[in-house]
Amino acid sequence: MQGKMTGFKCKSCGRVMYPRHERCLGCKGTDFEEVELAKEGILLTYTKLYALPEGIEMPPLVLGIVDFGGVRALGQLTTDDVKVGMKLRPIWGKLRKLGGREIYGFRFEPAEKS
Question: Which of 3, 16, 42, 100 is the most exposed place for a label (fewest CB within 10 A)?
Fold first, then answer.
């Protein structure tokens, strides 16, 4: 299921952040408005983990930093066939199982699936 990522724009200085912070990383303001982030982002960097944390079911775990027009998000990638600069889109899904509970959040999949 494709997801819609929401950023948080500081009403004082206009800086957009993801995820939400208690205070603006730029001006320390505390008043924000929700803004929709771009539907696709660009992969800036990634790493593959083979020694997995508890609850991750399939190695390798691929983590990447994705830029959505100046707002960067860290998350799991759905493929291990990755290349810096590729276009990715957010999808909502299960990230892991921890303490018998399923944990959900955004992952990133290739925007142009073959």
Answer: 100
Tally of domains in the chain: 1
Q: What domain range is 27 assigned to?
A: 6-110
CA proximity to 16, closest of 75, 90, 71: 71
Residues 6 or more apart whose CB falls under 8 angstroms from that of 28 comprise none
Report the DSSP pairing between strands 32-36 and 6-10: antiparallel
Beta-ladder partners of 109: 89
76-85: pLDDT as tens digits:
999 989 999 9
53 pLDDT tier (thresholds 50, 70, 90): confident
